Amino acid sequence: MSFKMVDKICEVSYSGIKTIKLLSIAEPVYEIHFPFFPVLPAVLLLENVKQSIDLFIRNNEEDKICFFQGVKKLKVYKALCPGDAIFTEVFLISKADDCYVFDAAIYHNETIAAKLKEVKVVVEKEKTAWEKELQSQV
């Protein structure tokens, strides 16, 4: 299963990115995740942040691959359901060589829905021709 967890980039700068995702009942996850009470799993909130970070990295370092390394803390404050719009803000905390550390916040109706602390990613080599071809097919 593939999940597109970012619909639109709202703002991108040298220090972070803001994105939006509109949750639809048509998302494949709701077929198996509480079909009678659909709620977005927290792991997809992490995926939303990771995809936002990917877009931030691509904006600043073309043809690089971004690998998720870990997150120190993820706290969910509110359940997110189909019909909700989620706004994600990702802030660059530090960068050392190819290792980036971010903090993130996810909002729904201007209320904090989740916070992530010290999301670490590693940015590696330029993509090979095969990887570029694979990406163009997505």
From the structure above, extract its key features.
138 residues, 6-stranded antiparallel beta sheet, alpha+beta, 3 helices
> What is the chains' assembly state?
single chain
Range of helix content: 10-25%
How far apart the termini lie comes to 13 Å
Would you tell me the overall average pLDDT?
Answer: 89
Biggest sheet: strands, sense, closure?
Answer: 6 strands, antiparallel
Give the count of helical stretches: 3
- Rg estimate, integer Å: 15 Å
The secondary-structure class comes to alpha+beta
| Shape estimate | globular
Got a strand count?
Answer: 6
Query: What is the helix/strand order?
Result: EEHHEEEEH
Strands of the widest sheet, in order across it, are 1-2-4-5-6-3
Unreliable segments of 5+ consecutive residues? none
Question: Can you walk through the features of this model?
Answer:
This protein is an alpha+beta fold. It has three helices and six strands. The chain has a six-stranded antiparallel sheet, covered by helices on one side. A hairpin with a 2-residue loop joins strand 4 (85-96) and strand 5. It is globular and about 45 Å long. The relative contact order is 0.21.
Question: Gist?
Answer:
With 138 residues, the protein is α+β, with helices and mostly antiparallel strands. The chain has 3 helices and 6 strands, in the order ββααββββα. Helices cover 22% and strands 46% of the residues.
Secondary-structure map with pairings?
Elements: E1 8-13, E2 16-22, H1 29-32, H2 42-60, E3 64-76, E4 85-96, E5 99-108, E6 111-126, H3 129-136
Antiparallel strand pairs: 1-2, 2-4, 3-6, 4-5, 5-6
